[in-house]
Structures are given as C-alpha cells and as structure tokens.
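Researcher: First entry.
Model:
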Amino acid sequence: MPHSAIPRDQQRLDWARTATGHDALDLQRASVDAGFRSYWRATADGQTSMPSTTWIVMDSPPDKEDARPWLRMRELLVAGGVRVPEVLAQDVEHGFLLLEDLGGPTLAQILNEDNADAHFDAAIEQLLRLQSIAPPSDLGSFGEALLQRDAGLFEEWFLGRHLGLQLDCGDSDRLELVQRRLMDNALGQKRVLTHRDYMPRNLMPVSDGPAVLDFQDLVSGPIAYDPVSLFKDAFLSWPLARVDGWLARYHARAAAAGLPVPALDVFMRDADWLGVQRHLKILGIFSRLHHRDGKSRYIADAPRFIAYLDEVLPRHPQLHPLIDLIEMRVKPAMRTGVAA
C-alpha cells in the first residue's frame, strides 16, 4: 500500500515505533495547536511514570503544516542559548518529529499568585536571550502588511462574522483611525527577534527553562510585543497594577542587557498599544477558529479581551474612539447574542 494511502494515525504510530525502537509503543494525545500540528505522548511498555520511556511526537501534516520552519527557528534559538525541546529523530518529508518529553503541564497550568513572580523572572530571562539574537536577513517582518492583515481579522471575523455587525461611516472612521495609530506605533518601535506568541501556554516549566514552544513564526518585530504577550495572556489575566510592575521589571533587565528599549514611560505606552493591537487581532483569530475551522473552545475567552481593552484604553486619549465603538456597538451585540 502506498504510504499516502495509510491512515495518518497508523503512519504516526508506525513511525514513532521505528524512531524509538519500541514495537509496543503507544501514543496518546498530549496537546493540539490552533493550527494543524498535533502532539502525542509516546509511551514504551505503558510505563507512563518513567520519563526515560516517554517522548513527544510532533505531527505536522506536510500538506498543511511544513515542519522545516520549526526546525530552522529551533536551530536559531539553540544558537542563542534559548531553551527549546530537543529533537531526537525527524522525518520532514512525512511531517514527523520525535522530541524530548518536557512533562505534562505548561507554565499556564501551574502559575498562581504566589509563584508568578519567580516563574515570570525565568520567562523574562529566556525572552532576553531570544531578543538578543540577531534576526536573519531573510526573516519575515512584523511590518505594514502583517499589521493590515491583523487589523482585517478583527473587522471581518469578530465584528462582521461573529457579532453580525455592519459598521456605519462613523464607526468605520473610528476603527480606522485607531488601527492606523496602533500600526504607526508598532512600526516606530525598535526591532528585535519576536516570537509573537510568547505566553505561558507556550512555555514549559523545566529546571533550565522555561522551555519555549511554538516558535516557528518568529519575525523581526517591535520590542514590546513579546513582553506584553507574556503578561497579558490570551488565557490568563492578572491585575493591571501587577502587569505594570512586571513590564517595568522586564524593561530594567532589558536595558541592563543592552536591548534597545526606550525610556520607561515610552515603553509602557508602547506595550499598552501593542496589547490593544494584539487583543483585537486575537478576537478575530478566535472568531475565525470558531466559525471557519470548528474550533470553538477559544471564542469563550472573548470577554477577557474586552476587559483588557476596558482597562487600558482610558489611559490613552488617542485611542478613545475605540472606546466609543466598543460601548456603542460591540458590547450591546455581545449582550444580545452572536452569530452562530
């Protein structure tokens, strides 16, 4: 039977057994991306309690999710001293990688009020290493085209598809004005290597880490983007005063490391504005996952992003037109129900 005719589940299991040398290996789902990659815990002889007998199989169907960008970015991070998963075997043609098993919970699953300071200090250390790596000359850029695409996600998928809103001229002008200001701010920041999803669910709490995951989409981007992603997470919220304190802590350490952060007040504004840009984008992405891809568990977090906006927008008069749009159109639509 041609390899392509074998069901994907069987391909994955056969490859994992060959790669590990364990004919009785079992696979169980470990996690799944919002994209097409999936992760499977491989266990030899059913001994799940023994780390030496477990691995992670990353499955990237080659027609949907090329594994080579992940491998290339991993090598870049390794060279810069960033803790990432070890690759034990690979079959790029068929989209399978065998990785070290970093354990079960992500940082997001173990963070609490008492341990957050220590864990975020370690996460900042890894981030400083990442940001100190010079972006390759052919790396993509978090530039005008990407920002325009992100802006379109919010309007098309969250406002239009999810909430069923048609913006009138006044609403469109308000949104366009704020989006333009957010884009100009992002484009005006100093550039560093940028993960774009540097948040606790993509960090694994290992002793020499945290280990960084989901790094295949690295770009050259604004220096405040990853710090605000870390502290204003898509799935975990903290009091604003505590977030401000962590951002100031990052700023001090970044300045000491020689990274091109601006003065603290400017950096804090930049972080707020990038946070707004990111929250609008994620509302669009989560709506698209729900309506187009049938992945509906993410959209339940939409109110978290509205709450982020409610906290931050009042601090910045230039962004106040977005407050009007949210109060007059978005919140009423969310209260009365959304498109199916």
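Researcher: Second entry.
Model:
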Amino acid sequence: MYIWRMLQDQITQYTEEINAFDTNNAAELEQFRIRFLGTKGIIKDIFDEFKAVSPEEKRTLGKVLNQFKQLAEAKYQTLNETIADAHGATEGSDLDLTLPGEGFEIGTRHPLAIVRREIIEIFNKLGFSVAEGPEIEDDWHNFSALNFPEEHPARDMQDTFFIKKGGEKGDVALRTHTSSVQVRMMEAGQPPFRALMPGRVYRNEAISARAHCFFHQVEGLYVDEKVSFADLKQTLFYFVQELYGEGTKVRFRPSYFPFTEPSAEMDISCSICKGAGCQMCKGSGWVEILGCGMVDPNVLENCGIDSKKYSGFAFGMGIERIANLKFEIKDLRLFSENDVRFLKQYQSATI
C-alpha cells in the first residue's frame, strides 16, 4: 500500500512538471527526453518499482502509469515537431543548394516517328505537303473509289477489320491503307495535287516477327497535267538516294494494284549487305520497299477529275519496312511493345 501511494504521488508531481514544460531549444528538449524517456529515466525507474505493487493494485496503477508515459511521449513529439518546423523556416532545409542538381532523363522519339519524319522532310524538298484522314472509313473511300472490284480478296473478312457490314453507306471498316486520304483530297479539290499521306492502317493478319495487325504507311500522290512514269521514277530515285545514301541501286518490277496502271514494285540494293546477300534480303541483294504506279484513269474519274486532261502517279511504303532496313530491326513486334530498353537505343538517332 505504501509503494502504491508513493508511486501515485510521484506520477502526480511529474505530470504537473511535464504539462508545465515548454521550450524551443533542441538541446533542452533532448534533456527532457533523457530525463523522462531515456533508458535510465524517470519512467523507467517507476516501471521498475511498479513490479513490487500487489496484483490488486496493479490494475489501477498500471492504467495511470501508461497514461503518464503517453503524456511524456506526446509532449516530446509535439515540441520536437515545433522546433523542426521553426528550424526549417529560419535556417532552411538540410539540402546543400550549391550541389549540382539531378538531371532529367532525356526522352527519345520512337524509331517509327524518326523514319516518318525523315521521309516527310525528304519529300517536302520536292514540294509535297502532308494530308491526313480518318482511320475508320466507308467502303467508297477505302475500296470502291480506288477501283477495287467486288470480288477483290482485300474486301474479305480475312483481310479487313469490318466495323459494320451493309447499311446506307455500305461497309464501314478500319482503313487498310492511307489511299483513302488520296480519294478524299481529290474529291475536295482540283489538281494539281502533290501530297504525302502518313498514318496507321489495319489488316486482319496473324501477329509475328514479320507481320502485324496494324502498321504504318506513307503514301504519296502527284496529279497534274502531263505527269509521266518518268516523273515517278525520278522522284523515287531521289528519295532513295536521300534516305539510304548515294550509290543505292534501284530497280522496278512490273506488278498489279487496282488503283494504278501501269503498276510496279520498287526494290533497292540491300543497305545492310551492300548487295552481297544476307538474311534481310534473303540472299538476293535486293529488298522491296514500296509499290507505285500511274493513277488509274477510273480512280481520277471516280473522284471527279478529268482523266483526259490530268494524269498522276501514286506510291506507298510501309514505315516499318523502311525502319527495318535503316536500323536493322528484325522483329516488327518490337515497335509496339513499348519496351523502354528498345526505345533508348535510338536516342542518338532522334532528329
């Protein structure tokens, strides 16, 4: 009973002392912490004496002792925060502002964006502007106006992502090429036209290292009076020399496209093996990079242009194919996986 009363008197006395204590000095506060909360402090001593109290008295005194300890801890915490705030306001933070700052990590353009921009800049020198159009197209702009027959395989569900079949305006689908932008341009005005149509296109294909269900194209259109196939050849020859360097060889092979006549596919000497033969060119020394041809008169007439007065040429290339040759990338899936490690490789190539 004596110990219980003695401890209670001590707690009452120290409680009054704690409540009255106030300081804005860190050293004084540290002395307070040592005196009450230290390993050899008052609270530790009281807890040691508490062990001698009878079990009946411990229930009552234990609660009072815990409240006393919490009071001391709260007092210390409050004063410590007050002093820290005052120290920061008057003396500043602990940061050394004279040290050099941490630099921001430099970003990079996507390799496809790099190639796309380079292609546009080359054709800009020849007077080609840039035109864009919607990625969701109706049948007329995506197929019919471009001279695609009804039975053409590109209209089949296996090749095209259809959004809507039938209806007043016909089928609606994700565009399979940016040629639809050419149709919209010719419908909206009169020649001369000289423009590039870059953009994303979609085809229903299995995804692999050499194919994807979406990819990027750059198509070009030039319509004016007396435009010839020679104009087409010289334009593309200039483009290849600018993109891959002087000395790059070019060859044209006859081909077929519904919207051009005559049509051709253009190959260049492999920029990787310099024509000696490698995996990229399949040992032939040549790589196909684009299709081209003279705009079919039916396409001009479908767009309201007099095919007897005007002629033109068109070409189209996959940006991924151009980037493959330029950067020697063998897997198309890398372009769309957003792997930062892959993108950082082209930081020095950013224009």
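Model: Note on the second entry: The chain has two domains: 2-91, 111-344.
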